[in-house]
Specification:
6 helices, seven-stranded mixed beta sheet, single chain, globular, Rossmann fold, disordered N terminus, alpha/beta
C-alpha cells in the first residue's frame, strides 16, 4: 500500500505531502519568511543545509533563489527522505541550486560547511507516542533536540554563516539560549508568531567569533 499523496503550493513550488511526514504549516511559512531576508544578506553562491527537512519545503524555497548554489537536505526518517526526493524532482524546473539528499540523524552523516543551516526543530514537550513524534517531540523540556543540534552545528558553519532555528514558547527557551551561548553562538534576532496556545519563535543564530568581522 502506497502512502496517500496530497499537496500544497508555496511561492510557485508544488509541495507534495503524505500522512507519514509532517505537513508544512504556519511555522514553515514563518521560517521561509526569515530565510528570505537572510539569503538577501548573504549574497551569492550560498550553500544551505536543510536539517530535519521533512517534505523539503524550506530547502526547496532556498534552492529556488538564484544566489543559492547548493542545498543539502537531511532527515533521519525514510519517509521524509523519499518525499523530499520526490519534491525535488517535481520542482526541478524552479530550482537554481544543486540538491542532494542524505539520511542523517542530525549531523551524523552530513559533511562540509554551510552558509545557512535551517532547522524547523521538533519543539513540543509532549507527543512522544504519536506516529509523527519525530516531527514535533523535542524532549521533556521541548528543546533537547534543538540543544543537541546547536552543540554540533558550529563545526558545520562557514565563517559568517548563520542558523535559522524554529522553536516554541511552550519549550524551555531560556535553557536553549544558554546552550546556544555555550556553543560559541548567539541569537542575533528573532521573529515570533502567536498561535492558539504558543508562540512560534524563529531565531537567527550567528557565531560569536564573527561579531564585528
Amino acid at each position: 500500500m502506497t502512502n496517500k499523496i496530497n499537496g500544497m503550493e508555496y511561492e510557485g513550488l508544488e509541495i507534495l505531502t503524505n500522512e507519514k511526514v509532517y505537513d508544512p504549516a504556519e511555522d514553515s511559512i514563518l521560517c521561509a519568511e526569515v530565510i528570505s531576508g537572510e539569503l538577501e544578506k548573504l549574497g551569492g553562491s550560498v550553500r544551505v543545509l536543510d536539517m530535519g527537512c521533512g517534505s523539503g519545503i524550506l530547502g526547496l524555497y532556498a534552492a529556488s533563489k538564484p544566489n543559492v548554489s547548493a542545498v543539502v537536505f537531511a532527515d533521519k526518517d525514510d519517509n521524509a527522505i523519499e518525499l523530499c526526493r520526490r519534491n525535488i524532482e517535481t520542482n526541478r524546473d524552479m530550482l537554481y541550486a544543486q540538491c542532494d539528499v542524505v539520511k542523517s540523524d542530525l549531523f551524523s552523516d552530513v559533511t562540509g560547511k554551510f552558509d545557512l543551516i535551517l532547522f524547523n526543530s521538533p519543539y513540543l514537550p509532549e507527543g512522544k507516542g504519536d506516529k509523527l513524534a519525530n516531527a514535533w517531540y523535542g524532549g521533556e523540556s521541548g528543546v533537547e533536540v534543538a540543544i543537541k543540534f546547536v552543540k554540533q552545528a558550529p563545526g558545520f558553519m562557514e565563517e559568517g554563516g548563520e542558523i535559522v532555528l524554529a522553536v516554541s514558547s511552550v519549550g524551555n527557551v531560556d535553557m536553549l539560549v544558554d546552550e546556544v551561548i555555550g556553543a560559541g553562538l548567539y541569537v542575533a534576532s528573532e521573529r515570533r508568531s502567536s498561535m492558539d496556545f504558543e508562540d512560534i519563535i524563529v531565531m537567527v543564530i550567528s557565531r560569536q567569533d564573527y561579531i564585528g568581522s
